[in-house]
Amino acid sequence: MTRNSTSVPAPAPFSRISLGFVNAYLVHTPQGFLLVDTGVPDSWDRLRDALAAAGCTKENLKLVILTHGDMDHLGCARRFQRDWKVPVAAHRGDLALISTGEGPKRRGTSPFLRLAMRLRPFRKPDLDAPDSPFLTPDLFLADGDDLRSYGWDARVVHGPGHTAGSIALLTADGDLIIGDTASNMTRPGPGMLAEDFDEYNRTLAAFHLLPARTVHPGHGGPFPFEKLPRRVQG
Ligand SMILES: [Zn+2]
């Protein structure tokens, strides 16, 4: 019996697009491109240029996936949805954050970050402004969802803690695009903020069981899976 090779796509390579302090990831598949995260609203020109250089256009970008609803990941998603007519996918747990910017209060994951949060509270963009970054996702992703129908041999792993709707994307090659559940600004560590420390720790414990080799964080470069943090301190 011959195997239908189109039903099991080869693992698609992806590239990191550095948008200043935050990353987006561009996945190249036989069917076109997928974009994971979109930077802050101001990074549109830079992101569009990076996509153009990779050959990604409005015609061949199939899906934008948000690892979570924070503004440094959501920033340009509405441009793709409204201007490029590309569907945006996210976990339902971050719907309020994505559609209004409202969400539960969060705390820094270190004493320094807790102090920094108090001194410099986050300013929310205007919901009703014409250039508002907020949107309603076209598609909700859930734990275990398979992305092979988009030509990418990867699955969704729900990992609440940083936010309720944080997800990671685990590829068949063992790459784990993890959003802000981990970061690597100076060294591998947890994300800077936590919405729920208990949930965050359960997520880290569960992530340690995944068949992953390399972690690709929302902030900073890739690092070996063994360096994934085991706990956040509340
Ligand atoms: Zn972030």
CATH class: Alpha Beta
What low-confidence regions span 5 or more consecutive residues with pLDDT below 50?
1-6
Global shape: globular
Name the helicity range: 10-25%
Taken as a percent bin, the fraction of beta residues is: 25-35%
**CATH architectural group:** 4-Layer Sandwich
Task: Please explain how this structure is put together.
The protein has 234 residues and is α/β, with parallel strands linked by helices. The protein has one domain: Ribonuclease Z/Hydroxyacylglutathione hydrolase-like (Metallo-beta-lactamase, Chain A, 4-Layer Sandwich), CATH 3.60.15. The chain contains six helices and 15 strands. The protein has helices spanning 44-54, 71-74, 77-82, 95-100, 111-119, 197-207, and strands at residues 14-19, 22-29, 32-36, 61-65, 88-91, 107-108, 139-141, 154-158, 167-171, 175-179, 182-183, 189-190, 193-194, 214-217, 223-224. The protein has a six-stranded mixed beta sheet. The protein has a five-stranded mixed beta sheet with strand order 8-9-10-14-15, with no helix packed on it. The termini are far apart. The protein binds zinc ion (ZN). The site of zinc ion has 7 residues, from helix 2.
Write the topology of this structure:
Layout: E1 14-19, E2 22-29, E3 32-36, H1 44-54, E4 61-65, H2 71-74, H3 77-82, E5 88-91, H4 95-100, E6 107-108, H5 111-119, E7 139-141, E8 154-158, E9 167-171, E10 175-179, E11 182-183, E12 189-190, E13 193-194, H6 197-207, E14 214-217, E15 223-224
Parallel strand pairs: 3-4, 4-5, 5-7, 10-14
Antiparallel strand pairs: 1-2, 2-3, 6-13, 8-9, 9-10, 11-12, 14-15
The chain binds zinc ion.
